[in-house]
Amino acid sequence: RHVDGESARASRSAGTGITQAVGAGAATFNAGAGVLTLGNGGNDFTGAVSLIGSNVSLTNNAATVLGTSNVSGTLDVGSNGALTQTGALTVGGAATFTQNSTTPSTTQDINLGSQANDFQGGVSFAAGTGASINNLSLENTYATPGTLTLPASITGNLTLDYTSAALTLPVVGVGGALDVTASGGITLDGTVTTGGSQTYNDAVTLGADATLASTGSGAIDFASTVDGAYALTVNTGGLTAFGGAVGNSVALTGL
Fold first, then answer.
1. InterPro entries, per this entry (predicted)?
2. Nearest Cα to 131, choosing from 180, 80, 86?
């Protein structure tokens, strides 16, 4: 089915691929309180796609642009190309974003850091078979979100901004630079390795023994305090900077 710049409404699964004409405008799929499934591998959306429904899934065999969307349940998006947004995403349940591009470049980027998104459940990022994620950014404004899940490695930069909440950073390898902001504090649960710098813009708590390493001698910068009854190991040929007290509230077992 051809989708042009006008809104298209769907309240059930789309059984055939949807191809959007080159140069077409935005498309809106509105299932109201119903389930919305756009999971055909032949889908080819070129304009921004806005999604409204309870549990929503979208597969796109091209770069994907998400417009303003409101999903009361789960959201599952797979993109065979860069995944970006032009409007905020509000998701009541778990959200999963999968990069399926096997072409190493910015076509593997996932940029969800440009809008005031409201992810209320957990947010997961994954790479499909033979694919990887290059640059990844995420902004979340919700005050009590679920768990963040990342792939074992990201080839480019990782930028995380939790404007109103705490964030637990999982074990991850980052080929470029890491920049983490979480107004409620950042918890480190293990090893974080980057090729470039690491910047922690808010107070850090150790939830386990943590090793922070930069293989490219990037700076490792703590803008605020560091606490937690665990050991912190920092390995870099570059500068390590502490902008606040270390172990003042809860002493570290080693540094």
1. DUF5649
2. 80
Ordered DSSP codes for 106-140:
GGG-EEE-SS--EE-S-EEEEE-TT----SEEEEE
From the list 209, 115, 122, 199, the residue with the least C-alpha distance to 163 is 115
How far is it, in rounded angstroms, from Cα 78 to Cα 71? 16
d(CA 207, CA 137): 23
pTM, two decimal places: 0.91
Q: Per residue in 241-255, pLDDT tens?
A: 999 999 999 999 988
Residues 95, 118: contact at Cβ < 8 Å? no
Pairing of strands 148-149, 118-119: unpaired
Residue 11 amino acid letter: S
For the chain, give every domain's residue range. 1-162, 166-255
pLDDT digits (tens, 9 = 90+) for 81-97: 999 999 999 999 999 99
User: What does the angle CA 162 – CA 168 – CA 173 come to, to the nearest 5 degrees?
Assistant: 100
CB 178 within 8 A of CB 198: yes
Q: How many CA atoms lie within 13 A of 240 on its CB side?
A: 12
Token code pair at residue 21:
């004409």
Query: How are beta strands 178-182 and 198-200 bridged, if at all?
Result: parallel
